Amino acid sequence: MWVCGANTSLAKLALCSLMLALAQTSPSVPTYQWRDSVTGELLICNKCQPGTLVAKHCTSSSPTQCQPCPENHYTQYWNYLDKCRYCNVFCEDRERVEHECNATHNRVCECKPGYHRGVHFCVQHKECGPGYLVSKKGTAESDTECAPCPTGTFSAHPSMEKHCQAHTNCSSLDLKVNVPGTTHYDTLCTGCLGHYNLKEVNAECDQAVQDFVVHKKLSSRRIRRLQLSLNGQDKLEREAEIYRKLRYSLAHLKASQPDKPLLPTLLPILRKARLGHLEEELRTRFLQPPNSLV
């Protein structure tokens, strides 16, 4: 134990300073300076290790006395504190304990599964929208990352899946492609192309007609004209809502005449809506030449 008092010679004071510097850079037990309140001597004392606090500072004749931190308190580093720090971190509703409070560390919280760390609190991981897959799964610290579905695959709904579904192979089912698949929806197959029966109801073929019309890339203006012809409605709405209501209107048209095929009823409506090109496409697609209608 080195003691540097007020009457210490200059040479010894220099040596004390050197020893203090060496002690502070040494990989062994860290030290600190402490002036004895009784003698006024400047002492070089050993610090207490993590998980403990100073019970009694060193003297010229005795080393530093340390004692363990009480429950729910900690010291993380070598120290000469007379009080341990209180474990003051408490996990919120969307958090869980990653590391519980112990003698050397405060409590550590992390976001619960399905959430990631935001600016001030945990935020739910986002879902990847239709047409996208999860390229990188969200963690407690980062949000989900999404990427477009590869060619030949689709994702029809928001999801947390890492893979998109492959498009249906119509030829393997001995069917024809009615609506080509995109990254947002599957290929729609049918056995009704060129075989639509104008006299008998066929639910499968009527559904194929509806699918073809709904997935046809029409401008919003043309869809509104069709809606007006179908049910007298022509409102300015978002594109997704327009297509949803178009599908509903076609289904309602079919349900209103359950004993009749859909196509003979739909073709005049398309003509009224000045959608002659779509009328002609349906004729060519579903009717065997030289079938004619109205």
From TrEMBL:
Keywords: Apoptosis, Disulfide bond, Glycoprotein, Repeat, Secreted, Signal. Pfam families: TNFR_c6. InterPro entries: TNFR/NGFR_Cys_rich_reg, TNFRSF6B_N, TNFRSF_decoy_receptor. TNFR-Cys repeats lie at residues 68-109. Residues 1-25 form the signal peptide. Disulfide bonds join 69-84, 91-109. The keyword Membrane does not apply. PROSITE patterns: TNFR_NGFR_2. It is found in: Secreted. Residues 68-109 form the TNFR-Cys domain. GO terms for cellular component: extracellular region. GO terms for biological process: apoptotic process. Transmembrane segments: none annotated. This is TNFR-Cys domain-containing protein.
